[in-house]
Amino acid sequence: MADSDESIKSLLRGLPSLKGPFAVHDLSQFPETPRETFKLWLNDAIAQGVKEPHAMTLSTVDADGFPDARVLILKNVDERGWHFASKADSPKGHQIASSSKVALTFYWPQLGRQVRIRGEATELSASESAADFLERPLGSRATAIASRQSERLDETVDLGERIAKAEALIEGNPGYVSPLWRLYAVAPETVEFWQGATDRLHRRLRFEKVGEDRQWAKCALYP
What we know:
The chain is 30% helix and 33% strand. It is of the alpha+beta class. Strand 7 and strand 8 (203-210) form a beta hairpin. The longest helix is centred in the N-terminal third of the chain and has 14 residues, at 34-47. The relative contact order is 0.18. The mean pLDDT is 94.
């Protein structure tokens, strides 16, 4: 076991990280809000061919105080925050219902960039949740209906049969919306933009709300 552990350690040590080259930016010249700054970086990621630049890690806390994290897809960004969707009876749905404070993390390795968002997740309107559900491909809607997300899958359960029934339900009623589908927005309290550097003198800029009027302020951080 020890030899195996040492080989993994050596393997990890030998893997390259932050080799670049990466673009150098004057972070102080960024827009005055994190939302506009995020749009600039997202557009850069798309233009540079980053795979799934809208993938993000959602972190929550469970009833026992353990952090929980998983990768989701960003649905939208507007004045209410960063949007994502989930089922209300999923682990993350229960965790958000219990504690709405969450974190989102984006990482674009080709650009050496990371965005960290901390804030509160709130449910959006039923009509917006329904619209999001209906915009999903048929297969994705059927899976959302058929799956008991994260529950133990009994060997006697025919998941394919459950999905087929869900597909038939949708085909017979194209406007059907899962009553458990929810669209959330994360209203940010702090947003950090991290630009990695090969010399490890990373550039970091944090936006945070300050004052009674809760306006955005920017500050640079040590690497």
